[in-house]
Amino acid sequence: MFDKKDTEKGADQVLKDFIAIDPNTRYTFDSERDAPQSEICRQGGPKGKECIILQMHSKRLFEAMQNHGFFCALPMDPTRTHMECTPIPKS
After folding, report:
1. What gap in Å lies between CA 5 and CA 85, rounded to an integer?
2. Is the Cβ–Cβ distance between 29 and 39 less than 8 Å?
3. Which of 34, 39, 56, 65 makes the best surface tag, with the fewest CB within 10 Å?
4. 64, 38, 63: which is closest to 52 by C-alpha?
5. Pairing label, strands 38-42, 27-30
6. What percent of the chain has pLDDT over 70?
7. Residue 42 CA to chain centroid, in angstroms?
8. pLDDT (tens digit, 9 = 90+) per residue, 31-49?
9. 3-class SS of residue 32
10. Pair 88, 69: CB distance under 8 Å
């Protein structure tokens, strides 16, 4: 039987593992309105831009990124609709 909570736990772990590779860089994410999945990308690094698809609504991904210590906001360019997340400096 399909359990939504198991899928969310899996997506949370995938996100945690993806961020752990480079927790001090900028991430962006985007998805279609009300889509059950979102694309998150890591900017820079040795491979340039790296992206994965998560089985997570964008609202939930926004919350998860905040929980991982990131500040997320829309970009300054009003024609862009993705979210940009930067790590919050730890004191």
Report:
1. 25
2. yes
3. 34
4. 38
5. antiparallel
6. 86
7. 9
8. 887 888 999 999 876 677 8
9. coil
10. yes
